[in-house]
Amino acid sequence: MKLEISCTRAQADHKQINRCKNVLNASAASFSKMSQILALAGNEVRLKILFLLDMEKELCPCDIADILEMSVPAISQHLRKIKDAGIIESRREGQTLYYSIVKNEKNILDNIFDSIEIIKKTA
């Protein structure tokens, strides 16, 4: 069954159309960044990694691997993708890399993690 959507209007509201276009154009960078974050967070493992980094502020790949019961190489691949997107950063302490969320990205992620607050309360 083919669903056909049609639209009929007597007159276009050009002020509304232009206002919406202007808002979208002015917010293009924000939409791009949000889309990138949501695409990465759409993977359950990466969402969990981001959640853990938000909760603990900083973790090394070995800790994340132990928590998620995965191999360090698998975690490292996820961390690389998230880091390449500019959502997390790393610092080295001796031989160990520690990852944390970039401060500018924390606000966007906090809005996502607000829906997981039940888990935070029980932890």
UniProtKB/TrEMBL annotation:
The keyword Chloroplast does not apply. SMART domains: HTH_ARSR. It comes from the Bacteria. Pfam families: HTH_5 (PF01022). The keyword Ribonucleoprotein does not apply. Keywords: DNA-binding, Transcription, Transcription regulation. Residues 26-120 form the HTH arsR-type domain. CDD domains: HTH_ARSR. SUPFAM superfamilies: Winged helix' DNA-binding domain (SSF46785). This is ArsR/SmtB family transcription factor. It comes from Christiangramia antarctica.
